[in-house]
Amino acid sequence: MKIGFALPQFHKQALDIARTAEFARKVENAGAASLWVGDRNLAAVNPKIGYGGQGNTIPAELNPAADPFVLLSIAASATERVLLGTHVLIAPLYPPVQLARSLTSIDLISSGRLLPGFGIGWSPEEYEAAGQDFTRRGARMNELLDALEAIWTTDPAAYQGESISVPLHHSPLKPARRPRPPFYLGALSERALRRVAERGDGWLPLCVVPSYLDIDGLVAQRAVIDRLAREAGRDPSAIDTVLRVNIDPDTPSQQVADALKAVHERTGIDHFMIDSMYAIHSVDGAIAFAAELIELAGKG
Known about the structure:
five-stranded parallel β-sheet; 14 strands; alkanesulfonate monooxygenase activity; Lucif-like_OxRdtase_Rv2161c; oxidoreductase; FMN
C-alpha cells in the first residue's frame, strides 16, 4: 500500500504552516508515498449549503485554511520522492491560465511529481466570492479541463468555450510530465462519476474512519465508473484511485491501519491520503502519527 498525508493546511495545524517544509521532509523520510493539500477559499458564517452539500453548517476546523499552491510549492522544494497531490482543488473557481501556471510551476519544481485532483465544490459562497456562477460549476469544470489540456499540450495555446475563453498566447513553459499531468477527479453523484469515467485519469473518493467507512459503497461507485468507462470506449483499469481517509478524533493508529487493509482487500485500492486535521492538532503529533501509521500498515 502507498500512504500519503495532508500537509498542515487546516484547523490548528494551519497555525504552524511555517513548519511545512519540516513536516514534508520528515514524513517523506518516514516512508510516505505522497503529500496533499485541499482547498477552501472561505468558510461562510451563514452558509446556504453545509459541508459536503449537507445541512447548513461547516465544521470549524475548516475556518483556518492556508493557500494550497504555496504549501505544495514548499513541499515540492523540500522533498525528492513523494507525489504532490491536491484532494481537491475547487478548479472552477480559478481562471484557467493562472491555474495552469501555478500547477506547471509546482510540477517543474518537483521534477514531474504533481498529481492534480479537481472537484466542483459545494459552497455557493465560494463561487460568489470568485465571481462565478455556482449553478454552472459542472459545465465550467468540463470546459476547464479542455482549457488545461490546450494550455499544457499546445504552443501557442488557445481555448474557446461557452463560459471560458483563453486568447491565443505563447505557452512554451510546459509541465515536466508529458503530455500533461493526470486529471484526478472527485466524484459522488452519477454525473460526476461519468466525468471520471469519460475524462479522468484517476478518481478521488472519500471515507471517514471510523464513522463513515462504506466499503460496499466504494465498490458500487467504482463499478459505475468501470461501466461508464467501457461505454465511452476506455479501459477502466487505466483509471487510478486514491482514497481520502479523514480521521475522527481519538481514533487509534491501529484502527486506521486495519481500516486501510480492509479497504485494500475488498476494493484493490492501494493508495490512501490520510487527513488528520480533525484528530491531531499539532504538527509534531501529525508527524508522529504518520510514522506510526506507515509502520503499522506495513505489518501483516
